[in-house]
Write a structure and sequence with these properties.
With 256 residues, this protein is α+β, with helices and mostly antiparallel strands. The chain contains 4 helices and 15 strands. Helix 1 (7-30) runs antiparallel to helix 2 and helix 3 packs antiparallel against helix 4. The termini are far apart.
Length: 256
């Protein structure tokens, strides 16, 4: 069952999302080659707790950190560690926040200094695929309209959609119904209704769609070792234009 949020719940989700945006801003102030992903994790956790929230990922199914930092061929769920970020890498940062019982979730892929044209094109296509999916988050559309919009844009650019990982509903829990694949035919599945809140998150590979999980039990990497990009927003379905609750993370010097 897909939850329809009350006006009061939507207020709570906006506050959670606002704290998430501030957390990204705090991370971005230090995000550059030479910093460790573990240091970024500490910065994020401090910002979340200072804003009255809790890192939603920490302890979730045993996950050991506050954020996910996935580098180059890591698709998602990279565990922060002591190794430093390097010039030429692309780095996906995924953050979840719980504040007063409401959850928000977003991700963004960043270029560490100068990166090659293939990586730039991959990042751009993944971000535009997110925007294409978000554009379908309006009352009266079907759930698979989101999925189809993402797939068409990605494949038209010559990239591959990861099929084993999905977006999701969000609200009183980090992961709620429905699951939202990033591929599929249009006009299928539940009808979207104003008040639904969804996390739309294309995960796009430069090479093939295959993935595997590393021995840490968390980090998902591409099967062929080629780079991957990941962008995500939390969005409120409305009768008109989609209301992207985490939109503020788009406004910074390192992102698309």
């Amino acid at each position: 069952m897909i939850s329809i949020r009350t006006p009061e719940e939507i207020v709570g989700m906006r506050k959670s999302a606002a704290l998430l945006v501030k957390t990204f801003e705090a991370v971005e102030e230090s995000l550059r080659p030479g910093i460790s992903s573990l240091a970024l994790d500490g910065i994020a956790e401090k910002a979340i707790r200072a804003g009255g929230g809790t890192p939603a990922f920490k302890g979730y199914n045993g996950y050991p950190a506050s954020i996910c930092v996935s580098i180059d061929d890591a698709v998602v769920h990279g565990i922060p560690g002591p190794d430093v970020l390097e010039e030429g890498q692309i780095v996906s940062i995924d953050i979840g926040v719980e504040r007063n019982g409401f959850f928000s979730d977003a991700a963004k892929t960043y270029a560490m200094g100068a990166v090659g044209p293939a990586k730039r094109k991959l990042m751009s296509a993944t971000y535009r695929a997110l925007r294409a999916g978000l554009s379908q988050c309006r009352a009266g559309n079907r759930l698979s309209d989101i999925s189809h919009a993402v797939q068409v844009l990605v494949e038209d650019e010559g990239f591959s959609v990861v099929r084993e990982l999905v977006g999701h509903g969000i609200g009183r829990a980090m992961h709620e119904e429905p699951q939202i694949p990033n591929f599929g035919p249009p006009h299928r599945g539940p009808k979207l209704t104003a008040g639904m809140v969804l996390a739309i998150e294309p995960m796009v590979n430069l090479g093939g769609e295959a993935i595997r999980i590393l021995s840490d039990g968390w980090t998902v990497v591409t099967g062929d070792g080629k780079p991957s990009a990941h962008f995500e927003h939390t969005v409120l379905v409305t009768d008109g234009e989609p209301d992207v609750l985490t939109l503020g993370i788009d406004d910074n010097r390192l992102g698309e």
